[in-house]
Design a protein that fits this description.
The chain is α/β, with parallel strands linked by helices. It contains 18 helices and 15 strands. The structure holds pyridoxal-5'-phosphate (PLP).
Length: 458
């Protein structure tokens, strides 16, 4: 590895340089994301309605389109110090391997036990639940990263944590489940007999291995029946993007220290929370006309919300009990094929990112999973860090951009988000190594069928 004299391998911020405010990019957006709608009335959800499901302070953040800087409470900032600031790494070895004149940087968010960026929002959501005097929170988890992050946050604050885990993951990922139980969470395979909606689904589909939408419905039901509980969600919502702005703020502070300005900023996109968090402060500059950047969202070909979806009001859950959000969506009835990037298997996308994409402020691309694992393996071999399959979508795109620079000779600066560790995904790596991984893209007819069932709202 040949280091440039003036740029270290890793740029560290001190504890004191940890941001004191989250940045709310909605304040700088001319076209605000459309409001959540009450599915029954078709009217925007009021704070009161949202407060029946979500914590009060989080509802305020969800609806706040005007305040640019939101103070990070000291208690949350102190928790962040357990694993932040996360260093910004220059991918010197990857650059050398690719033979590119591009300069590649990445921000690794997998350096905590939960293994991903999700802890940044989990601690915030748990904190506001505690502050409201609640006994606990409920949630769903698919691949398991969000449930793990929330369990850690709840253990720290002494809150009860009930996780509904999609049954097939519950069975396939026993270690994820045990990590959650180590942190004191109760983990129930979904669908379960514990809720009315679970019993109904089991009666209709005996032996089903569950889905994220079904687990959401169960978690929401439990929270809405007990006034001492609220439901929390790990992506998509405005509040989650707000908490994740810590990623971009730290990355920008680290770059500013050395006078580095990225040309291209890349992130994987499932529900969009890490990506909006990473790009937020840079997007703010672009929106205010102070600087220009290219932003690229990378999604799996199996679940192409941006690249093949519609910009429309849709349900966030398969059970259609949550409010309607205006977003790029494949339709809530669309069930993505099982891919190994479980965290990217969501039919919709953050309304904030959706609006930015709709306004032409961001680009998107979709990648096949075998390409993603090739990139993951190459990255692991030269940079050392074992990446999560989700994060590896961003690695792939960063490599593509770096190879373009090799052709043109341009020394572009590329920043990408490395959202998590791949330690819990070795089953997927095994499939890849054995040559058992197949690529799949949904047919147009399959997408059209789901679009036809979108709720009829403009
Ligand atoms: C959940 C997850 C994602 C996708 O979620 P976003 O809300 O789109 O950020 C990406 N990477 C990892 C490691 C995850 O756990």
């Amino acid at each position: 590895m040949k280091l440039e004299k003036e740029i270290p391998y890793k740029i560290y911020l001190s504890e004191d340089e940890l941001p004191r405010y989250w940045y709310n990019v909605r304040a700088d957006m001319k076209n605000k994301p459309a409001p959540l709608l009450n599915a029954a009335t078709g009217k925007p959800m009021t704070a009161e309605e949202l407060g029946q499901v979500f914590c009060d302070e989080l509802v305020a953040q969800e609806l706040n389109d005007t305040d640019r800087d939101i103070l990070i409470p000291t208690e949350i900032r102190d928790f962040y110090k357990m694993y932040r600031p996360a260093p910004l790494t220059r991918a010197y070895c990857l650059e050398e391997k690719l033979g590119t004149p591009a300069k590649i940087y990445y921000k690794f968010e997998g350096n905590n036990t939960s293994g991903s960026h999700k802890l940044n929002s989990a601690i915030a959501q748990a904190y506001y639940a505690k502050k409201q005097g609640l006994k606990g929170v409920t949630t769903e988890t698919g691949a398991g990263q969000w449930g793990t992050a929330l369990s850690m946050a709840c253990a720290y604050l002494g809150l009860d944590c009930k996780v509904f885990m999609v049954k097939c993951s519950y069975e396939q990922k026993p270690f994820r489940r045990e990590v959650m139980r180590t942190y004191g969470a109760s983990v129930t395979p979904s669908p379960s007999m514990e809720t009315a909606v679970g019993r109904k689904i089991l009666a209709e589909h005996p032996g089903t291995s569950g889905s994220l939408g079904c687990a959401i419905s169960e978690a929401v039901e439990v929270a809405s029946k007990d006034p001492a509980y609220r439901y929390v969600l790990g992506s998509v919502l405005n509040q989650v993007g707000l908490h994740q702005s810590i990623i971009g703020l730290e990355a920008k502070a680290a770059m500013d220290k050395y006078g580095i300005k990225p040309d291209i900023i890349i992130g994987c996109a499932g529900g969009g929370s890490n990506l909006i968090g990473l790009i937020a402060p840079f997007m703010g500059e672009k929106l205010r006309g102070e600087a220009d950047y290219r932003f690229i969202a990378v999604e799996p070909v199996t679940c192409p919300s941006f690249t093949r979806g519609r910009f429309a009001y849709d349900y966030c859950d398969t059970g259609a009990i949550c409010p309607l959000a205006k977003m790029y969506t494949l339709g809530s009835s669309f069930i993505p094929a099982a891919t190994h990037a479980g965290g990217l298997r969501f039919h919709g996308m953050s309304p904030v990112l959706s609006q930015l994409y709709h306004d032409g402020l961001m680009e998107a691309m979709a990648v096949e999973q075998t390409r993603v694992f090739e990139a993951a393996e190459m990255f692991a071999r030269c940079e050392g860090t074992l990446p999560a399959p989700e994060s590896s979508h961003a690695i792939y795109a960063a490599m593509q951009e770096a190879l373009k620079c090799k052709e043109t000779g341009e020394e572009k600066v590329i920043l990408f988000g490395l959202t998590g560790t791949g330690y819990f995904d070795m089953y997927a790596y095994e499939k890849f190594h054995n040559g058992d991984m197949v690529d799949y893209a949904p047919a147009d007819e399959e997408l059209e069928a789901a679009f036809a069932r979108l709720p009829k709202i403009d």
